[in-house]
Amino acid sequence: MNSGIRQYALICANYWAFTITDGALRMLVLWYFHQQGFGALAIASLFVLYELCGVFTNLFGGWLGARIGLNQTMNVGLLLQICALGLLLVPADMLSVAWVMMAQAGSGIAKDLNKMSAKSAIKNLVPQDQLFRWVARLTGSKNSLKGLGFFVGAALYQFLGFQQALLLLMGLLFIALVASLLLLDKQLGRSKYRAKFTELFSNSAALNQLSGARLFLFAARDVWFVVALPVSLAQYFGWEHSAVGGFLAVWIIIYGAVQGFVPQLLKQQDAASRLCFWAVLLAILTFAIALPLLFLAADNIALSQLLLLLGLLAFAGIFAINSAYHSYLVVAYARADGASLDVGFYYMSNALGRLLGTILSGWIFASFGLAACLLASAAMLLAAGLLARGLPNCE
Predict the structure, then answer these.
(1) Are the C-beta atoms of 108 and 51 separated by less than 8 Å?
(2) Rounded to whole angstroms, how far apart are CA atoms 238 and 278?
(3) How many CA atoms lie within 13 A of 252 on its CB side?
């Protein structure tokens, strides 16, 4: 097997194992505290440090990866995730909100070290003219497996319980860590020059513009996805935990599958020029999804639920096109030597968007309901579309 392809396969396997545990952990924490009687805002607060740590991890992690190598940052991410899961194995009376937030902070650092490393490494492993296809494959497969992780987490919680599920996930990560330590190229992603601390922030106008659009794109998803949707399905529509986890899994699997096929459906050369169109189209769809909840929910719960679910599945497909174009463009815009600096800065914006969406998901849902979360999402998508106007295309 070609050395570059072998390293790509190892990175994918590492990323996949991490992603399954990350999605499963999200469901385990969500359902454990929901069952303890915590409200939407309190549950959202559990994930605030997770997202906040992602902001700083992406910013500093890109610089660190350029200096010490992406294999090292990937391995540190795996080890931190094992430690974060271990922190949650304490007796039930010690699982306070503060303790779980601390564990989630470690998990947030781990997740973004792993993601930044995987996305940055692709720049040096595949030819430029195949970049769109390989980035889409990596990102699409990762998102599909995160969906699987949601289902795994919900099912493990229902059938094994909180602590047994954590032990199983730690075992999976340990296997991935050993394989990574033994097989990953020790020089992967290490810059030929000593990256300066002052290079943390991008000086590329196109990358800054794309990063702003990414912030609003992911805030628009998480404002309804993180807390509002799963709590609504369980609390108002009476779904079992495994059913909610199953739907979230299907949503992300569809999102990942479409993302993986975007290069076969759409042209690489049109990526930047079409971002505004796809974001605005998604904003219109999201506004339409909110309407049945505003006008039908009280009178016809079954119909409003059906329209909500169908609309959100359509959202997954169009969101995937937006995300695939974004993921390709950041790697294409990134410098060849020290790509992790640019990729880290960009995913800092992604983490800021997720943080904003997470906070708003709890607050807007607790104050105004799911429909208001969807309307806020539509407004953010319009902002993402406007910020993406005029981006340069990459050949």
Answers:
(1) yes
(2) 34
(3) 26
Strand, coil or helix: 198? helix
| C-alpha atoms less than 13 angstroms from C-alpha of 283 in its C-beta half-sphere | 19
Contact yes or no for 374/297 (Cβ under 8 A): no
Residue 135 amino acid letter: V
| CA dihedral of 152, 156, 158, 163, whole degrees rounded to 10 | -140
Q: Report whether 283 contacts 385 (CB < 8 A).
A: yes
Q: Rounded to an integer, what distance in angstroms lies between the CA atom of residue 22 and that of residue 41?
A: 21
In this predicted model, what pLDDT tens digit does every residue of 208-241 receive, in sequence order?
899 999 999 999 999 999 889 998 998 888 888 7
Q: What is the pLDDT of residues 239-292, one digit of tens each?
A: 887 788 889 888 988 998 998 888 887 776 666 778 899 999 999 999 999 998
Instruction: Evaluate whether 84 touches 107 at the Cβ level (below 8 Å).
Output: yes
CB 222 within 8 A of CB 353: yes
Instruction: State pTM to two decimals.
Output: 0.80
What token pair was written down for 346? 């960009």
Compute the distance between CA of residue 168 and CA of residue 94 in angstroms, rounded to an integer: 21
